[in-house]
Amino acid sequence: MIYQYIMSKDVEFRPLLRSDSPGALVDPARPVTAHGRPIEAGRRVMPHAHPRAQLIMILSGVMRLEAGSDTWIVPSGHCAWVPGGLEHALSSETDMETCNAFIDPAHAGVARAETACRVLRLTPLLREMAARLSEAGRNGSAAPEWQRLGLALIDEIARLEVSDLGLPGGRDPRLVRLTRHLNRTPAEPRGLGELARAVAGSSERSLARLFREETGLSYRQWRTRQRMLVAMQALDQGQSSAEVATTLGYGSASAFIAAFRRTLGTPPQQARRRMTRAGQAARRSGPPSGGGSA
């Protein structure tokens, strides 16, 4: 089914059937359409599907994506690949700024071969290309210049790396309440016992079990991974280790640096230099030539 959806804060809505949704367009002459928008925290789109594959780019904030029995939490600086025809639901854990790219079925296999959702690292080049393509309007254009840009964007999607810090989510309402709270307040100082009672309405033992059963991680592992994802984005934006430590609730910059090195195997400033070099290289290379094929 093809949907154009409406979302309202803290309320779940079923998408309304619309034939002019950007995801519904089937036209190889318009290989990619793109549009961006801000989304307030607490909005949810109920399960839906569309013929075009979708790349959901999170420019700021945190999104929850559900497909089948799997759940992903997608932070800023990352994007989610959703194959065409796959039923999925999404919600905004925090206020978000997003950009969506919809890839025509004739080109989707060139962009990504996966038949399941994937969380990928967003590159500066792809972000700028999608922003430029969005100027063609929500349903794109068959003009040659937009075709070329769309095909180049497909090639860039194919180069995206799968995130090595994926953050699995869960479906149990108690777990969802807690992880959503932590995504909105990454510096939360309380331990699992107090959070279980105050936020999730459950016991520490039950929440610990839910983390392991539904995310495959212990609460401590999940929390560390969540903090490192926030840290990577903050470092990419130029924040110092001291600033990031404060944002994430660490007692000192040295405590944050030790946790970062322990988790990622490198100190924060070295990671920031690597991300800066990668961004500069992507900008120098410009859009790839030739584009994808139908």
Automatic annotation (TrEMBL):
Keywords: DNA-binding, Repressor, Transcription, Transcription regulation. Residues 200-274 form the HTH araC/xylS-type domain. Residues 265-294 are annotated as: Disordered. PROSITE patterns: HTH_ARAC_FAMILY_2. The keyword Transcription regulation applies. GO terms for molecular function: DNA-binding transcription factor activity; sequence-specific DNA binding. The keyword Transcription applies. This is HTH-type transcriptional repressor of iron proteins A. It comes from Pseudooceanicola marinus. The gene is ripA.
